[in-house]
Amino acid sequence: MHKEENVMSITINDRTFPTFDDYLGEISETERQEILFSASVIGEMVKAHQERGLSQQDLADLCGMKQPAIARIETLKSTPKTNTLINILAPLGLTLKIMPTEEETSAGKDTQVLS
Predict the structure, then answer these.
(1) Which one of 3, 65, 69, 95 has the fewest CB atoms closer than 10 angstroms to its CB?
(2) Of 72, 77, 51, which is closest to residue 60 (Cα–Cα)?
(3) Using 50, 70 and 90 to split pLDDT, how confident is the model at 5?
(4) Domain range list for the chain
(5) pTM
(6) What is the three-class DSSP state of 10?
(7) Per-residue pLDDT tens for 63-108?
(8) Domain formed by 10-96, architecture
(9) Handedness of CA 77, 82, 87, 90 (dihedral sign)
């Protein structure tokens, strides 16, 4: 008996890609970094509210938003403004922090000051 494989693909802007990585390979480095950053921040937000046992509705109530807005952000269908993101993160005990990239950190370790 032939077993059918469950194949998942992603469609973005009317184009279908076999995997999300295939999509990332087709876009500019700037777009790629923006998407990965958003996914990372939103992933931490989701993790934090789930670890606290909060539903999307609970989180929405805590930050003065509507649940559908939280859902759109969590599914990356909407990109929140910085102040909105801070308002969502605050009740979770989180904030945003600007840090050097790994490349900058590594470069800084190898840099010598000459006198």
Answers:
(1) 3
(2) 72
(3) low
(4) 10-96
(5) 0.68
(6) strand
(7) 999 999 999 999 888 889 999 999 999 999 999 888 887 765 555 5
(8) Orthogonal Bundle (1.10)
(9) positive
